[in-house]
Prior knowledge:
The protein has helices at about 30-40, 45-60, 105-110, 130-135, 165-220, 225-235, 270-275, 285-295, 310-315; strands at about 10, 20, 65-70, 75-85, 95-100, 115, 140-145, 150-160, 165, 240-250, 255-265, 280, 300, 325-330, 335-345. The protein has about 350 residues and is α+β, with helices and mostly antiparallel strands. Helix content is about 35%, strand content about 25%.
Amino acid sequence: MPWRAAHALQARTDPRGPVLMASPVPPSRQAAVAELGQAALSDLGLTPLLNLASKLVCDVLGVEYSALARRSNDDESLVVVAGCGWDDTVSNGSTRLATDTESCSEYVMRQQEPVFVHDFASDDRFGGQQFLLDHDIVSGVCVAILEGETSIGVLGVYTAQRRTFTSEDGDFLRSVANIIGSAVRSYRVHGELEEHTIAQERRIRYQEAMATCAQTLLADRGEDRLETAIEALLTATQAASVFVERNVEDPELGLCSTTVADVAAADRPNEELYSEYWEKVPWDKMPTSRSFLERGEPILLVPEQLEGVEGEFYAADPFPLKSELNIPIFTGDEWVGLIGFADSQVVRDW
């Protein structure tokens, strides 16, 4: 095992096997905390920060393994998000740790102080952490990561050798966990502010678009007024295209939808081919959409999830879409058409 000289370990006699004692507080601990604190104040990003923390604790404490796990979105387990020393069976973002009431992880998150474990296999304070036992972990020290007063995860260092960790080891690990908790809170608050700003900007775009639509459609009698109006909606929603369709009765095809206006964010190749495909579409080919629209309800479509005749029709589109939002247009009680918003790159929430 490659131990650094500054982290030299001293062995002492123990009837159960050799016990490794860490040397007194290494001088690099203070520097490591300072480095991590500085990184947390920079624009490094949360994931690189967690990776840096997991590496620093391994280097400073001279252990083979570290793991940093956060509560999952479903709050039913911890997900490893950073770590050092593990084999390919451990994957950041997908490896989960149990958090049942008898688990080591849950025990650590209930504690205010670092938890020192001399032997995970025989510790009777909690059930054996299978994840650790599967990797032949013997000893370790763990601390809860707090965001404010709430435990959001666990930071731990582990070794396959029997080792007695010191209170200084625990204090160092807790300092690192405190920096992580503060950073998580900071990034969350920053994200909420960013989302609020984006939402505000979106509302302003929508208000401006509605004003343009009202002015154009109600006051302007030009032939291009409908295109001008939906061009404003295209800009506001940042969709790939916006289109207006009306219902027409065809003697052979029955009730059909035909495009009367269409604007796109970028020039489409083979525009004539696209227009021809959507020129007159029987509603019998789009039963799911029709069932929503004629009831007066908008419908969000993800073409690749559609089945039957409607799925086949969208699959044959010469310019496949990722998602589409269609909103019915009524005159009085009569359903006469729709306005649609489409994205060809991503599945949007609209």
